[in-house]
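Please produce the structure of this protein holding beta-D-glucopyranose.
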Amino acid sequence: MNEMTGEVLGKLTREEKASLTSGVNFWTTKSIEHAGIPSIMMTDGPHGLRKQTGGSDHLGLEASEPATCFPPAAALGSTFDPELAKRVGVAIGVESAIEDVAVVLGPGINIKRSPLCGRNFEYMSEDPVLSGLMAAGLIRGIQLQGVGASLKHFAVNNQETDRMRVSADVDERTLREIYLRGFERAVKDAKPWTVMCSYNRINGVYASEDPWLLTQVLRDQWGFEGLVVSDWGAVSDRVAGVAAGMDLQMPGGGRDTDGEVVTALNNGELDESALDDSAGRMIELIRKAQQRPKAPWALDVDAHHALAREAAAHSIVLLKNDGDLLPLVPDSSVALIGEFARTPRYQGGGSSHINPTKIDSALDALSEELGDRMAFAPGFPFTGTEGTEKMRTEAADLAASRDVAVVFLGLTEEEESEGFDRDHLSLPAVQLELLAAVINANPNTVVVLSNGSVVALPFADEVPAILEGWLLGQAGGSATADILLGRSSPSGRLAETIPHRLEDTPAFGFFLGEFGHVRYGEEIFVGYRWYDHRKLDVVYPFGHGMTYTSFEYGDAKAEVRSGGDIDVTVPVTNTGERSRREVIQVYVGLEGSVVERAPRELKAFSSVDIRAGGTRDVTLTVRREDLAYWDVRVGKFIVEGGEYRLEIGASSRDIRIEASVAVDGDEVRIPLSVESSIAEVVADPVAGPKLGELMGGFGASGQDDDNGDEMMDLLGSMPLERITSFPGTGVELKDIQKLIEESNAAQK
Ligand code: BGC
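Below is the modeled complex.
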């Protein structure tokens, strides 16, 4: 806490400090006039601004001021482009500044543990490094405008069912390597002004009351200096929250928890320094917000719409393009089918619901270019089944009469939203039946998907081309037209695997849990880590995405820099006739590791434009800290020494070139104990020979011959002290204790 903050704090009574650390209403904090503390507004987020001036709610029901609706995280994550995320962040920051909003509630980077999670559309990926880097881009952009971001939902909020109570029961290695790693990256790289703690419990403790999470990990270990705000309504026990490091309860205006905090102080149940820390952080947050220069601008609706269109085009993933069906041949006639082409689903339901400044539909955008060469049929109703057959016949007839059919399929808000999870991966039956009829009428069929999270693609082998459009924001319609017509080339990559069946997914059998607990039994094997570990076939793998050209990868070089980071350089050639973008990915693996690992993990990626026929030497940096596994014995991230395999490719299952690099490991010394196994003791440079002496030849000296090996196979796992249980060894417990003490002391 700096001196200025200390001075302001000194002017406040206990009651005032308590009042400062809870909201006054849905979106604003309390002011304290005599101390010169104004109130500030914090509001959703994350892919645009949701500033409500009339009725307020955290469910996205009431109206909000018009703002640009950028592609939600599911789409933006697929760009694999943190620089683009930063530009989107800048635009959101500008809009927030114009509206005098101090903090935007986003980005959200919970790991997509199961494709069923209703809120996956608001999260970036199943991979923590990708999630963390994309979030860091957005946060930097927002905060460059003097507006704070709020990284959410911290942490392990991976399902909507029972989200306000459920306990995510996760082992620490999995927490650190998968569920916290992205947060750690974003916190360290981009320093968000605030972090929002989640609704759920983690291993039985509410995130909003968890000193381990909010203080030990977030502040002490990661160095977070900002403020922790509760998710809206996430506080069950405010006093426990303040003690744990939860600084601001939102929203305000409900139960008198300020009074509860003051009573706890007066009773001595709560340490005043905890409240001082929280109130101090509030004062600092407000000061930062006040330093934002007054916004001179009016919103440039068109410029932001153009950015939303660019971002949407980069988000679209071309899953398949047999016979180069796309881009559409200039003179071809097109049957445009599916209600989503006319009525786009461009964002998810719930608190992130932005009121867009305008909306482009693919129907309008394509009609503008194709005129009479295109005709439209809705194909299916969004709800119910009335008139389905007639619509299907009409669509199939239309498809038969044109060169190409472009069919828009997807999920509606009734099928996926914040607040609930799906229970299957299927698209609605009416849509699948429609598609079957269209393919039958015209095999030249392109499918365009609108969905917030993965859907099953039983038709993947039957259609020549598929575009995964996710939810693309307000300019998604024109961006999709840009891709279909070849005005832009697709460069999006899957930030989540598309599996064949729900039964194949990592969390199957665990997801949702029971009796208030959900067990993360798949541990670190989330997303592609699982499918690779289990050697499961998938429909489309993580990182997959095609473009309208092909790229060749040359030989890769890897070099360890002095600080330990690894630079991987690979020449990539665009063998096509137009400038195009490639997303180069580096996956890392370590054979024979001391811990169970996934075969490959994404550690670096780069999204680069390469001109036609040109070659670029692309250098990607794998950070040393990202090689580390969480060592439960020492409670630390440890980089294991060894020869790491670097796989460089265009997806997790399209590895083009490999390299390897020798990495020096961190020293891990686990003190020996009488419980250590004989093998562990023998392997110890000091204790091993001593044991040999004690046992008359057994131990280090006995390892060299076959008898020694055999003995070690038989006895290696025996705890050392257990030697004393057997007759005739002549070894006493006190000898063993002495050996252990001396060996540990010699290595301190
Ligand atoms: C959501 C948050 C959101 C808040 C305010 C909550 O229900 O989980 O993501 O920022 O409401 O609308």
